[in-house]
Amino acid sequence: MTAHPRLSLNQATTKNWTLEQAVRGCSAAGVGGIGLWRDRVAEVGAKRAAAIVADAGLTVTSLCRGGFLTAPTAAARQAAIAENQRAIDEAAALGPTELVLVVGGLPDGRRDLAGARAMVAEALAELVPYARAAGVRLALEPMHPMFCADRGVLSTLGQAIDMAAQFAPDEVGVCVDTYHVWWDPDLPAQLARCADRLALFQVADWVVPLAPDALLSRGHLGDGCVDITALSSAVHQHGYDGWVEVEIFRREVWDAPGEATLARVISSFDQLVAPTVPIAPLDHGLPAR
Amino acid sequence: MTAHPRLSLNQATTKNWTLEQAVRGCSAAGVGGIGLWRDRVAEVGAKRAAAIVADAGLTVTSLCRGGFLTAPTAAARQAAIAENQRAIDEAAALGPTELVLVVGGLPDGRRDLAGARAMVAEALAELVPYARAAGVRLALEPMHPMFCADRGVLSTLGQAIDMAAQFAPDEVGVCVDTYHVWWDPDLPAQLARCADRLALFQVADWVVPLAPDALLSRGHLGDGCVDITALSSAVHQHGYDGWVEVEIFRREVWDAPGEATLARVISSFDQLVAPTVPIAPLDHGLPAR
To answer: CA-CA distance, A161 to A165, in Å (whole number)?
Structure first.
């Protein structure tokens, strides 16, 4: 099996695989990139995880995830900062690679959305010097507005770019995930605005009806209603030359054997994403970061 | 029991009540406005419905709903136009009152979101002369982005205003529903832009976790995380002087006796909305339309 040279498997897609199993699966399938999750990294430790990935000749394309920076008390916010510093340390050990930030929802019992958004900006300012010293770029991920209350108060790409713009492009970027942003009427303009802030492009489809747990409504590319090809085309036309991670949370996908899931990821990527990825100009044989 | 003079009950909130029961309930509770749904109107006919409401001294504050203008074939789109003309006739018989439009999602099997949005604009252009002749204003309702695929491709207030702006303010307005728009970082600017396009203000809270059917995640004012008071205050500060409809889709609310639901609507409105409504300037004793 050969996979497209820019395809990266976000390991949440094969949720039941350990890090080692996922690396072995990617290796066997010819997938060159893998996006890691902290819980699976923690099972072996960041140093060992880095070695497992490197020994297989793979590249870590991101670490998911830091964030959850909104909290009702100063003490809880400081605890979140400390937790994110540990995540930055792990991202440094793993490459370094980008650390994806899901910024957090409204603090429990609060309704002050503007205040929660300001809280994120404040925490980010505290984290950036630490990340800079570690050589890790933070990637703000705008979340679908249905997660605004309980997961991420950054609701649009434009808002994420505005917040990132307070820092240098190699310090804070944005992560564009088709599942979160596909609906946005302002998306074309904001994709044009991303430039070198675009730290990571993730793809997944939006499947209706929504799953009873809305978080699990993602689907394989082509199974839903997102024009993956058009979005990937726009992202690449604006100069993105990094990895493309396939990240799917869905019960049926998780229940399938990892190998079958990965095979479907590879074939749907070939069909819907590959035609939009200009790989010729790269001269170093590996996707740019 | 007395209710705030600008409070209107959207009859979807007391889903199990017939139109006659809802009117009787409002009358007994001192609620002066009622937002009607077409299915309940159809049970008695628009003419009889208008008489029932008028006999009780109530005002119809909106008719829900027209729309669903996106369809994969020209024939289906023409059928949708015809259906909306019938809805306009009903709205004319009922006041006239505003006809709320839920514009429709992606046509079955399609992924062309921009195309679907263009389809709505086209259908709207076809409907406006008919509505104008009937004396009915159409109110575009931006839907929460989680409904973009299957219910409404108008995803933000800004987008709805842009589309309405192709027509006169008394021909096409917008309907602002807190449940659909509360997350939008651009909301304050767009509320300021609404001006006389704001045809209807609806309120409901956003309750987490989302219900297994996401459509039913609305809650009584105060039960969720939306700052209803702040949004209502912004709407009224920008000059809105119409009715405020409480519209809640939620299994537990529907399972409660209508009288109890209405009592809760009245008390939460008094607490969270009433303080933001400047009623003094009105000189005709009834809310302006």
So the answer is: 6
